[in-house]
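Hi everyone, sorry if this is the wrong subforum. Our group has a chain we'd like a structural model of before ordering constructs, and none of us has done structure prediction before. Sequence below.
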Amino acid sequence: MVFHLRWRNGGSGRIEVAPVQRRGIAGGMRVEPCPRVVVAAPHGRSGKTTVTLGLVAALVTRGLAVQPFKKGPDYIDPGWLSLAAGRPCRNLDVYMMGMEGVRESFAMAAAGADIAVVEGAMGLYDGLDLAGTGSTAEIAKGLRCPVVLVVDTTRMTRSVAALVSGFQGFDPEVKIGGVILNRVARCRHEDMLRRSVEEYCGLPVLGALPKGQGYDIPDRHLGLVPAAENGELAGRVAAALESIGGFLDLDAIFALASQAPPGEPRAVPDAGGSPGLFAAPRRRPRIGVFRDRAFSFYYPENLAALAAIGADLVAVDALQDPGLPDVDALYLGGGFPEVMGAELAANPGLLSAVRAGVEDGLPVYAECGGLMYLGRGITWRGTTYRMCGALPFDVEMLEGPQGHGYVEALVTGANPFFRTGSLLRGHEFHHSRVVNLDRRRVKTCLQVTRGTGLGGGVDGLVYKNVLASYTHIHALGVRDWAPALVTAARARL
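Answer:
Right subforum, don't worry. Here is the predicted structure as tokens:
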């Protein structure tokens, strides 16, 4: 296989890659694609998101099909990576999915791509415990990916070699294949950094980004501003990313990615079960999914699992749609309903329709932002915005996080979607809290053994056919969820 790449400066490159066996869904077998690389860093805020976005955008500009991935539970970075790649970014998380689930998701998403690029999280070796469980390094080893280390070189010269060599030797199973220098001050600074890494570490420098170029995406309380929320911002960021490719050695990065060994065939089970579990219906059940500027936090695998079982997904715009379409269930994901509070409140037709649907027994699964929408109102920065009032509570936004990190919860109460006694693993990140909850009208079904949830060791509000919680789940980690939601929707036919 030969790729011909043409650079911005008029030059060109020619890369030969050994052909890789790839099999699709037929036969239930898949393999990992050969070219793949992990972009990591010594610590958070090193600039790896900016570098990864620029790398993906540059490779796409040169005609390659790039499949992006993001390590860990995250919705915002994947939104920007999806925008840069033109393909949905997938999350890879050992805690929620297990390593086999990580490999499965990777194989399914990367099939047919020319290169896979995985953005790490935090520092390369940072994990849940002293052993680094769930770290970017564990992902790199599990997928047999070479690592590109992005180093923030602010106020640093020769010490960069000591830093990089420490990461090289810390775990011999992690292959660090090169370094990208970020926030470089000037030409003399770059020259010293390059020579130090090459002389003392024996690694190539694969790029050097100058500081002060305006590449950073604006932050908010949960991280970057979502790509889907602001079209003007997305356009400006896309324009800025175009220049990053000129600072990267794309030939060398692609060659490094191509050194990853080919994957081995493995059976890939369906993320959500088999359509054959159900008798043929009069029509396919329709599940409404809130997808707009207020609600954009969804794992692609969750939506794919619902569709694979036999549901039709119907997009609902909470800001614009005057009422609910003809649906048999609702899936309300997370997002920033507080930011769009005024617009959500200005759409009373949909608010009333959702409240009426809940009272009529419509199955509803809601996570975080979706939970907030189902309450009576959201108070943020001194203003209260009316929500649909389907559940008896109010929401307050606070400056500090009220729940952030992984969640483990035992299902202890009856609910529409999870078996009592089962264990759920997920994550949460919210600056809101539920107040004035009328516990006479609703019950909780989750005992939280790790994380915060609603507080007091519980999560998961149950009312009629509604389950609303602060916990986000992944369909490859909680495999009973998608069949249960489709079954509930089918019961409405």
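For your construct planning: The chain has two domains: 2-267, 275-490. Residues 1-32, 220-224, 264-280 have pLDDT under 50 and may be disordered.
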